[in-house]
Amino acid sequence: MTHARGERSALCDLFDTLGPDAPTLCTGWSTYDLAAHLVLRERRIDANPGIALKPLAGYTASVQDGLKAKYPFPELVGLVRRPGGVYGLLPPLDEAVNTLEYFVHHEDVRRAQPSWEPRELPDDLERLLWRRLDMGAKLMLRRSPVGVILHRLGGGVAIGGAKDGVKVEVTGKASELLLFCFGRQEHARVDLTGDPDAVARLTHAPLGF
């Protein structure tokens, strides 16, 4: 099983356990909302642009609400379990595109629940997450008001954020650094070193794609 399929399956198992009304780290979204988002992303290409473009967000939100109205939560989760659209036809594309998507959203659900603890991930998944982060750090940190130096435990450095001014060093496992750079700063298990004001500004910055 690929990592994308593994994270997808584990997230759907968690959906089944928690039900439709559990919180997530996606602001304002329950597990029902997140499941609808994932179905929309793969099966309603017409509504995808509004995920990133605010002028089109209203249409995307209406499609997402329509999916919730059409499908009971267990049926929606069933659709998430099976890669849809091009991802169902091209497994290598599913792995290339969806590993990060499903890892982050799996953690969005896990870490919104009480008494969560970080998972011990396979070494090859940690290495994959670091490669993706190393390639995408500048884009993910483009809105950071301060410079950022990412230190991966076990080796590896990536740089992003503001080019001038103070720098903040962020140290942790690749998986935790990825969550930090995806905008889940308050729920990522990392160590931050630098000027306290700069650290505070980075912690509350709108990071991610």
From TrEMBL:
InterPro entries: CHP03085, DinB/YfiT-like, Maleyloyr_isom. Transmembrane segments: none annotated. It comes from the Bacteria. SUPFAM superfamilies: DinB/YfiT-like putative metalloenzymes. NCBIfam families: maleylpyruvate isomerase family mycothiol-dependent enzyme, TIGR03085 family metal-binding protein. This is TIGR03085 family metal-binding protein.
